[in-house]
Design goal:
The chain is built from 17 helices and 7 strands. With 369 residues, it is α/β, with parallel strands linked by helices.
Length: 369
């Protein structure tokens, strides 16, 4: 059987231009490389799966490239680049601080820092999850981090910058990585689907991107899971079934019930949702998100905040024309109150049903006035 490589590894970027959603950071790093203004310590922080370790590896590869391009991209041809691509580079040292967080681990690292690289100009030390280092390990690391040998560069990566002591922060150039936009993730998944010969509906990729919550690695993991599930054809229905996501059509239908003050059908739709196995609290949270999306769809200025595909965007804009702002404000307030008090309720189904009835009566109350 042929060895299978997951998409998160197979399509891991190996140049700055291939990194998705972090253009400001990659541009800054490339400018620093071209100008020769390299710091001795960097801190890459941000959520999981957004490219911190990937950018650290590309940076390490680029500064050791023997034939660096005018665009500050590695040549991928020289001995240094080839050894990096084959995971055989002696210039890059990675330490997982989650499992190597003692003073002895740091002392071993400090000892290795003194060794001059045999090939290339720099030895790059990437310390992942650096916030996991013990207080003693941080203290042992301070002096070396402040005044390392000329050939040593440290890149610290963390998801929790607030846990790092100020004395470490003051010695590093800090780069804050952002969550990747839904449209950027969906577009990248679309490119991978084309390369792999996989048919994928645009709405299905949008759902995967939303579920990933800004993390490209999570999106690629979900993508692989769905490819296995659907036999190389990713459909919207297959995605919502596999990921246990409520079909957005339910939100459009129940919102229509609110507009028409149709209490019976609103309650029947909620019952259908419960029979499908969805939790009442998740439904309320999703409905609030739906009404928020309708609200931002009412104005062209705020419409950019809508993270959906084009076909769904048109549905939101259409329903937004049926909803008055006052209705949306009151509805969001009711749902917020319902969500806050949901867990304290002894009869949670009734608690949600009362909220739905109140939502259906908003338009009736306005007519009476």
């Amino acid at each position: 059987m042929e060895n299978y490589l997951v998409s998160a590894r197979k399509y891991r970027p190996d140049t700055f231009d291939a990194v998705v959603g972090q253009s400001v950071i990659t541009s800054t790093l490339k400018s620093a490389i071209l100008s020769g203004h390299l710091a001795h310590a960097y801190l890459f922080c941000g959520p999981r799966g957004v490219g911190k370790t990937t950018c650290a590896r590309i940076f390490a590869k680029t500064i050791n490239c023997a034939s660096l391009g005018a665009d500050a991209e590695p040549c991928n041809q020289c001995e240094s680049c080839q050894s990096f691509n084959n995971s055989k580079s002696f210039n890059i040292h990675e330490l997982d601080a989650a499992s190597n967080n003692s003073v002895d681990d740091i002392r071993n690292l400090i000892e290795s820092v003194r060794i001059i690289p045999q090939t290339g100009k720099y030895s790059v030390y990437i310390i992942d999850e650096v916030h996991m280092l013990s207080q003693s390990a941080f203290n042992a690391f301070l002096k070396t981090l402040e005044e390392p040998p000329p050939h040593a560069i440290f890149i610290l990566a963390t998801t929790e910058k607030h846990k790092i002591i100020p004395t470490i922060l003051s010695r590093c150039q800090i780069y804050d990585f952002n969550r990747i936009k839904v449209e950027d993730i969906a577009e990248y998944l679309k490119k991978i689907a084309v390369k792999e010969g996989i048919e994928a509906e645009e709405e299905a990729l949008q759902i995967i991107a939303l579920k990933a919550d800004g993390a490209m690695r999570d999106a690629l993991t979900i993508f692989d899971q769905l490819v296995s599930f659907s036999q190389n054809t990713i459909t919207y229905n297959g995605v919502i079934e596999n990921l246990n996501v409520l079909d957005y059509e339910y939100y459009f239908k129940i919102t229509h019930c609110f507009i028409k003050s149709d209490v019976p059908n609103a309650l029947l739709l909620f019952n259908e949702i419960l029979l499908k196995g969805f939790d009442g609290l998740n439904f309320i949270s999703g409905l609030a998100g739906h009404l928020r999306d309708i609200l931002v769809s009412r104005d062209e200025v705020t419409a950019i905040l809508l993270e959906t595909g084009e076909s769904v965007r048109l549905k939101y804009i259409e329903q937004a024309q049926e909803c008055e702002p006052e209705f949306l404000y009151k509805a969001l307030d009711i749902l917020n109150q319902c969500e806050i008090s949901y867990k304290a309720s002894r009869n949670q189904r009734l608690h949600v049903e009362i909220a739905l009835i109140r939502l259906c009566n908003i338009c009736n109350e306005k007519k009476k006035i």
